[in-house]
Amino acid sequence: MDDIEDLIARIIDRDEGAFNTLYEATFSKVYSLALKITKDSSTAEEVVEDTYYQIWQEIYRYDFNKCPLYNWILIICRSRAIDAVRKLHAIPEMVVNDDWAIESTDLSTDDRLQGKQLSLAVIKALSEIKPLQRQVLHHVFYYGLSHQEISDVMNMPLGSVKSTINRAQKLLREKLKGEQF
Fold it and tell me: What is the maximal distance between C-alpha atoms in the chain?
């Protein structure tokens, strides 16, 4: 603990050697977490840069009593990575575009029309559930976040995340009853 306190004190005093020591000791795990969340090496590299820049700027805020230094660094990385994913994948909420293209050209005209109708039915059903439910489902199916990750990102209790997902899925099933998927 004394070594870590000394290292942090030196970083606060703008000792680049101490910062490099911290960087070398933590880089591989920070990069791995960033890559796991962003699923893109270039974005992960940017996240790592942002993470260490924030550490350099805000190391004085670190509190030994709240969590281990390593965990604090990973929390910063995770936050930067989630922000990067949101920024990359930012889309307007529930936009219905009648010009959506069906990806497969192997489909007949009838199949394409049916696919477009089903897509519109899903969008309509999503627009009829509560915004919180829609947002949680978006995190699950669009970003692929786990229940625990959603709990952390949205600052919601894990049980609330699970019940919100279950209610939203039940509502969607009811609204889409009769559709041929």
Answer: 71
